[in-house]
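Appendix B, record 7
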Amino acid sequence: MALAEIGARDDGGVDRQALTPAEIDARAQVIAWGRALDLSPFTDAAANLFLRLEGTEPDLAPVLCGSHIDSQPTGGKFDGSFGVLAALEALAAIRKAGRPPRRSIEVVAWTNEEGCRFSPGMTGSELYTQVKLLTDVSPIRDAAGTNLGDALSAVLAADADVPHRAFGLPVAAFVEPHIEQGPLLERAAVPIGVVTGIQGTRRYRVRVRGAAAHAGTAERHERRDALLAAARMIVAIDRAASDPPDIKLTVGMLQVTPNAPSVVPAETYFSIDLRHPDNAVVDRVDSDIRRIVESERGPCDVVLEQIQHSFSLAFNGDIRALISRAADELGIPNIEIYSAAGHDARQLHYVCPTGMIFVPCRGGVSHSPEEWAEPADLAAGARVLADVVWSLATT
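Structure tokens (predicted):
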């Protein structure tokens, strides 16, 4: 609740987009909370934030736990933030127990997970795991024209005495706690989800170029109407993605130029978000999308750019078993669950044993001011996390 005051909206939600002044303030608060626990802060060129509890053998690869603190423009209080603060609570409990771990344990807040200001998201975890290079992402601009490189520099300049580290340091394991962002745990009345994997996704941007014309004088058969072309594409893509019925297809952004009532649209720009657990299904619909944007463009020009492609994955079996065992030993009911949403754990999965802990959210609502999680469920998730990271750091 305290963190949600930073970037608070009048409707009870949170607008704390990546690399904004609001996130700079939230970052400073998290650092202050960490320093109050004698945790050492670190950052890197991606502005990923780490708070380190030193182990008795500090040269060993550390255990990482956390998530992110950036939000959607109309976000909620729990998405991402729960994972960072649960990790902070876990380290507070370990410190209070007075038994230092063998491996160091680090709370992490990854940069730009949401990708709403600078698209695509998961910038920090992709740079950390060297999926992408800083030179690849620095030129990306937000809607106001600010490039990501300059925004990173502003955030890092605002840090007070936070040392920098290189990307790609060895990691022993990563555990990410998160609200489910779906309804399954709440429906099952189970407080802990042991996440088995994350479904695959492809994201695109489509630009359709036609020609502006007078709405009252331009003949229909002579028009190059970019909006009608985009509408045909979207309808046809929606039909192509109707089987199997659990495909997730979203066109969440549509920009029209000049966007005037009496002018034939000269250009449209829209997004496509495609997701499914079966990589073969994603690949098939990808082929359909590429065919449709060409076949439905009419007299307009079209450019399709795929900005992200992430495969479906299954998390490490040992980490999953450890999460389930920790919950069982605490007497907390738990079930296996698949993640329909993407998370930074996707990137860490390829460089170290990785797992996720889900807790329920009311009605499955997320990315909304209506997002809510019960305190008892949040506490249960933090308790399980504490035992899991302790086990990972002492064996």
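Remarks on this record: The mean pLDDT is 97. The longest helix spans residues 375-394.
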